[in-house]
Amino acid sequence: MLDIGIYPIYLSHLVLGQPERIQATARMSTTGVDSSCAMLFDYAQGAKATLESTFEANTPLEAYIYGSDGYIKLHPHFYHTKKITLCRYDGKNEVFDIGYRGNGYLYEIEEVEQCLSVKRQQSEKLSPDTSLQIIRTIDRVKEKIGLSYR
After folding, report:
1. Side-chain-facing half-sphere of 121: CA atoms under 13 Å
2. Please, what is the angle between helix 128-145 and helix 6-16, to 10°?
3. How far apart are CA 53 and CA 63, in angstroms?
4. DSSP letter string, 89-121
5. How, if at all, do strands 70-74 and 93-97 pair?
6. pLDDT at 32
7. Among candidate residues 47, 81, 51, the one with its CA nearest the CA of residue 66
8. How many C-beta atoms surround the C-beta of residue 73 within 10 A?
């Protein structure tokens, strides 16, 4: 959950916010850690998020965000994709090639450097409240799957 489960949870939070209801199931490894987890999040406005994280299979690492007029495909690795496809149900699709530098932590390092240079104690890009909301969601999933680190 804390290794790869955070990525789909963060994406759903970014798009839909805090889920109202969570369903989750997991398969636990012999060490007591979840090796595979499937989650269904329900939101007040009627939206749903179907999420999965697993070490048990070589999954495509793509993400899809569906809407009334089409969907957005975040190509592999969705959490630092270099390509996004906007697929409209009318057949008009657009592909966006986006630049991505480094292996993921470069942007975080640059933000920390920027905050330090202006003596800011927290980033404006991700508030402490948002971090707490995501941790609370993870805690709710952990409770549903019976995962404890104590």
Report:
1. 1
2. 120
3. 12
4. TTS-EEEEE----TTSSHHHHHHHHHHHHTT-S
5. unpaired
6. 86
7. 47
8. 18
pLDDT at 129: 94
Question: Where is pLDDT greater, at 108 or 63?
Answer: 63
Q: Strand 48-54 vs strand 83-88: parallel, antiparallel, or unpaired?
A: unpaired
141's tokens: 């999933």
Q: What angle do CA 57, 59, 60 make, to 5 degrees?
A: 165
Mean pLDDT for 6-24 is: 96
Assign 102 a pLDDT band (cuts: 50, 70, 90).
confident
Instruction: Decide: 38 and 57 in contact? Cβ < 8 Å.
Output: no
Of 101, 142, 145, the closest CA to residue 2 belongs to 142
Are 49 and 16 in contact, with CB atoms under 8 Å apart? yes
Give the per-residue pLDDT at 89. 96
Euclidean distance between CA atoms 135 and 1, whole angstroms: 11
Return d(Cα 93, Cα 34) in angstroms, integer.
Answer: 37
In the block, tokens 């495909």 appear at 73
